[in-house]
TrEMBL record:
Peptidase M24 C-terminal domain span: 538-597
Organism: Sphingomonas olei
Annotated family: Belongs to the peptidase M24B family.
Name of the protein described by the UniProt record: Aminopeptidase P family protein
Family matches, as CDD domains: APP
UniProt-listed Pfam families: Creatinase_N, Creatinase_N_2, Peptidase_M24, Peptidase_M24_C
Lineage, top ranks: Bacteria, Pseudomonadati, Pseudomonadota, Alphaproteobacteria, Sphingomonadales
Keyword terms, alphabetized: Aminopeptidase, Hydrolase, Metal-binding, Protease
InterPro entries per the UniProt record, alphabetical: Creatin/AminoP/Spt16_N, Creatinase/aminopeptidase-like, Creatinase_N, Pept_M24, Pept_M24B, Peptidase_M24_C, X-Pro_aminopeptidase_P
Residue span(s) of domain Creatinase N-terminal: 7-138
Molecular function as annotated in GO: aminopeptidase activity
All residue ranges annotated as the Peptidase M24 domain in the record: 310-528
Length: 600
């Protein structure tokens, strides 16, 4: 198993033993998570792909890996084209490809604990056209041939104090109970790890960079709940925090517990639950009510305490990032630094705050050509030296008990070219257009997305990723349901109306393959705003992130007076907020780098 080719061959042998003519390997876990624990990294183990979204299909004579536009370059760097076909989504669907490539009458396996019911139905219909069958497996064949598969994490649960959560777990459970009564349901199954963490005000350490615990929760109409989690994760503090209204069970008993709903109506979120859950409830004689997880919108619309916490986190995180930006601007052009050493230095600055719990994701530390890979992941094998003349892109964030951060900046290693400045300034113009948007209630991210792209479109340019994603409160750095993206972007997020309290990223970019990448990312808070003379209250954004935007990459001639005013005002706020928490040369640097740009 020392090569990916050997792993693919072993999987094919296992499929033959299980009398399967193919198998689908998604990048997810039994909670439909975007980021998954090491034990669930089946796609990475099989193919070498290290992105955060993708699916593989293995047939006896061919195999394909499916990724979206964010990973067009990355997948080709990490996965062998000798073994795998590269297929883009949404242009081609997994089920459509299967119908075109599987043999007549084939038996295609899938793990019902790793796919939604909607996907199962779609794939079954597609395969029916060739008299093929989608077959659920009891034993995942990848697991059967993965000899050193890691065990699930045994990290303990911790309590998220009400002082940071803003609402008690009892209040949240009571709201869910009211929701169940209103919808005529007896219980709701919460399969999302973030939902359990938010509802019960607990956190964990089972997924790298995301403070969640492997668990399920069933909430009942009387306000009680049943938590399914490994017993070793519990401790006296968590037990006392949960109280008698939350019954704790071994996570391994969850599947069997789905058989208790005979004659009962059970709400299940079709998008956040794997197919095995509704199928088990129905098999036991229960009725599945397909409804959105009732914690999704309350979790996404941060309360006043969570908003204040994020502002505090943004100040300390912005100070740490600004220290790094000064360091890399000085040390980078000298030579001797690499993508890995730079990422380590930034983490060091964040840890010096004394309150960093973890990074919010593995930093995208990318210089030169690697910057053109939007979701590049640096490894020992890919690590490049940072050299003069390059653009260095750093996309990173921190997990703090009061907030989750995500920010991207670009630093030139020496004097940038005029093309670099032109592209950077166009990205900045789009960033400003979104940051200053005023819009009515009901507006979706898809409607706002074009604002961030127009300056690039006018030059015949674009970028192949979403403009913004939701961010959790000491939870996942990628949080649904809202996002800012083209309507055709994978997932249903762009159709979600933005609501006050939501935190989303603002990150337009530009990528020149083989040369450099540009992205400017701040986090935005949706809030209500009165418009003088307006007929209704509108919505607008507050920029939360505080860190300098590199002046040397800005071409002021391309900015309108309003855009230049926004940039100068933003930098004035950055300096006024961060200078008091910095010292000596670092304080002098932030003041200098945030001084106003004056034209003419």
């Amino acid at each position: 198993m020392s090569t990916y080719s050997a792993r693919l061959a072993a999987l094919r042998d296992q499929l033959a033993r299980q009398q399967l003519d193919g198998f689908v390997v998604p990048l997810t876990d039994e909670h439909m998570s975007e980021y998954v624990g090491a034990y669930a990294q089946r796609l990475s183990w099989l193919t070498g792909f290290q992105g955060s979204a993708g699916t593989a299909v293995v047939l006896p004579a061919e195999a394909a890996i499916f990724t979206d536009g964010r990973y067009t370059l990355q997948v080709r760097e990490q996965v062998s084209g000798d073994d795998w076909q590269f297929v883009g989504v949404p242009e081609t669907s997994v089920s459509g490809w299967l119908a075109d490539h599987a043999r007549q009458g084939a038996r295609i396996g899938y793990d019902p604990w790793l796919h939604t019911r909607a996907w199962v139905d779609e794939a079954s219909r597609a395969l029916a056209a060739i008299d093929a069958t989608l077959v659920p497996v009891d034993t995942n064949p990848v697991d059967a041939v993965w000899p050193d598969r890691p065990a699930p994490s045994d990290a303990p649960l911790t309590v998220q104090d009400d002082a940071h959560a803003g609402r008690s777990s009892a209040e949240k459970r009571a709201a869910v109970a009211d929701w169940l009564v209103a919808h005529g349901a007896d219980s709701v199954v919460l399969a999302s790890l973030e939902s359990t963490a938010w509802l019960l005000n607990v956190r964990g350490g089972d997924v790298s960079r995301t403070p969640v615990a492997l668990s399920y929760t069933i909430v009942n109409a009387d306000g009680t709940a049943d938590l399914y989690v490994a017993p070793e994760k519990m401790n006296d503090a968590v037990a006392a925090h949960l109280g008698n209204a939350v019954r704790v069970h071994d996570r391994r008993s969850f599947a069997a517990a789905l058989g208790q709903f005979v004659g009962r109506r059970v709400a299940v979120d079709p998008a956040l639950s794997v197919a095995a859950i509704p199928l088990a409830i129905e098999a036991a004689g229960g009725t599945v009510v397909p409804l959105r997880d009732p914690t999704v919108i309350p979790r996404a619309t941060k309360n006043a305490v969570e908003q204040a916490g994020h502002r505090a986190a943004s100040i300390r995180d912005g100070a740490a990032l600004s220290r790094f930006l000064r360091w890399i601007a000085i040390e980078g052009p000298k030579g001797g630094q690499t993508e890995l050493s730079a990422a380590a230095k930034l983490e060091e600055f964040r840890r010096e705050t004394g309150v960093l719990k973890d990074l919010s994701f593995d930093a995208i530390s990318a210089t030169g050509p690697h910057g053109a890979i939007p979701h590049y992941h640096v490894t020992e094998e890919t690590n490049l030296p940072i050299e003069p003349g390059q653009l260095y892109l750093i996309d990173s964030g921190g997990q703090y008990v009061d907030g989750t951060t995500d920010v991207t900046r670009v630093v030139p290693m020496g004097r940038p070219t005029q093309e670099m400045r032109d592209r950077f300034t166009r990205v900045l113009k789009g960033h400003i257009a979104l940051a200053t948007a005023v819009f009515p209630r009901g507006t979706t991210g898809a409607q706002l997305d074009a604002l961030a792209r127009l300056p690039l479109w006018q030059a015949g340019l674009d970028f192949a990723h979403g403009t913004g994603h939701g961010v959790g409160s000491y939870l996942s750095v990628h949080e649904g349901p809202a996002r800012i993206a083209k309507p055709s972007y994978p997932g249903a997020g762009p159709s979600e109306p933005l609501l006050p309290g939501m935190i989303l990223s603002n990150e337009p970019g530009y990528y020149k393959a083989g040369e450099y990448g540009i992205r400017i990312e701040n986090l935005l808070l949706v809030h209500e705003q009165d418009v003088p003379g307006g007929e209704s209250t509108m919505l607008a954004f507050e920029t939360l992130t505080l860190a300098p935007i590199d002046r040397d990459l800005v071409d002021p001639a391309l900015l309108t007076p309003g855009e230049l005013s926004w940039l100068n005002d933003y930098h004035a706020r950055v300096a006024a907020t961060l200078a008091p928490v910095l010292e000596g040369e670092e304080r002098e640097w932030i003041v200098s780098r945030c001084s106003p740009i004056i034209v003419g």
